[in-house]
Amino acid sequence: MGSRTTPGPQTRRQVERLRDMAATFPEATEDHPWGETAMKVRGKVFLFLGATAEGLSLSVKLPQSQREALLLPFTEPTGYGLGKSGWVTARFGPAEKVPLGTLGEWIEESFRAVAPKRVVALLDGLPEGRSAGTRSVRKKA
Known about the structure:
- This protein is of the alpha+beta class.
- The chain has a single domain, classed as Aspartate Aminotransferase, domain 1.
- The protein is built from four helices and six strands.
- It has helices at 9-23, 66-69, 100-114, 117-123, and strands spanning 28-31, 37-41, 44-52, 55-61, 75-77, 87-92.
- A six-stranded antiparallel beta sheet has the order 1-2-3-4-6-5, covered by helices on one side.
- The longest helix is centred in the N-terminal third of the chain and has 15 residues, at 9-23.
- It is globular, with a radius of gyration of 15 Å.
């Protein structure tokens, strides 16, 4: 039996999948401040991931969909004043179904909000140096 802080195998797999999604973005790097996983682009965080025996949590910056996201029962504005800047935290218990598709969309929106325009252009397949402009995050059909 694990300790209170050790995440179970399902939580570890979910965190791994979310981290792997975030790692596919151009220039994404992983850091571990405060015992959490932080995914960054050029030194700026676009995703915080945490995992304990109580489940997983993640925080993302959602300038476009924050209002909609906060209507969901598993979300709240991120603490430390970050909620005022568009950050949303989602928490899931170890047995809860995690909506990976939705969270993947949020991770992309957060990346686009934090990354420099030249890096977003790489994501959009534009030659480096061309502006990607503003592009809305893909919605599920």
